[in-house]
Amino acid sequence: MDTIVTGGAGFIGSTLVDRLTRDGHRVHVIDNFSRGRRDNLAAAEGTGRCTVHELDVTSTDLTTVVTDVRPDVIFHLAAQIDVRVSVHAPLADAMVNVLGTVNVAEAARKAGVHKVVFASSGGAIYGAADALPAAEGTPLRPLSQYGAAKLAGEIYLNTYHELHGLDCTHLALANAYGPRQDHRGEAGVVAVFANALLMGGPTYLFGDGGNTRDYVYVDDIVEAFVLAAFRGRPACRYNIGTGVQTTDRALHSAIAVAVGAADQPEHRPARFGDVRASALDGSAARSDLGWTPRVDLAEGIRRTVARLPRTVAPPQRRTSGVSSPSVADGPSTTTGSARRLETDLLKHGDGAAEAL
């Protein structure tokens, strides 16, 4: 099978590329490397079945690449993933997350692509759900421009299905974590806590530590993408979550145990806009896709920590390093213009990038 993975050099994207090449598929990666790392693709490129195109998903050249490749499936993971950037720079966010998705859909239409599997956001599109875990029928209440853009991406792809017969499946991801997640900017709180504890830096809990999120290991998320390439109802959203809520405080404790560091985070005032609780009901994905999360949180944290460099021994006593995301989310890369805006925002005190 010939495939394209947009955002394929990122955390989830590169893990998906590895899986696809191991399964014998040919993969074309589209990434502008504003966040993605070329070394994430070393193993895949070594198979001879991975071709890399340094390209932005908003580029007019995208159609040329897609038409030349004529893939069976496009896995669309490229995105501006920072919620705060979307709030402060909504036009930049929409350029990537809305127009970029439309560009992918239009390229797929022109090239006669059979299917697009889209990385949506479970936490961002549902917002503060009335009941948890949130099912696909939960009212859609995006609380950020990022969430609105992800929802718009679903709607645009569904429209292409109705007008042009483009098959599409949307995966609404809970909080992804695992090896390759960048603690410096991808908003993965597991990576942030683990790196800080390993390096002897501080870790922070915002509020009382009782905010909850639903954590899904990256290999389980990749399995959902692979299954969605062949299964699922057309133009349908599937939640990819465990349905289990984990508090920020419990997460910190689990990571401290895995690292072998003192479990002593510093508490800071709650942040405006943080969703109190989030979890996704994955029942539809189980029934339609045959997907089941297999890696529990303790094992996933162990695997994640094992892949991190241990350049500094953990101190005997610590005050501790970062917060939980405002929304649940997960993929990939930004465009250069959005990345510059993001950098400017972070320089002015808007904190670490948060999403997925």
Automatic annotation (TrEMBL):
Region: Disordered, residue numbers: 307-356
Domain NAD-dependent epimerase/dehydratase: 4-241
Biased composition (Polar residues): 317-337
SUPFAM superfamilies according to UniProt: NAD(P)-binding Rossmann-fold domains
Listed Basic and acidic residues bias regions: 339-356
Source domain of life: Bacteria
Pfam family, one: Epimerase
The protein's name: NAD-dependent epimerase/dehydratase family protein
Lineage of source species: Bacteria, Bacillati, Actinomycetota, Actinomycetes, Pseudonocardiales
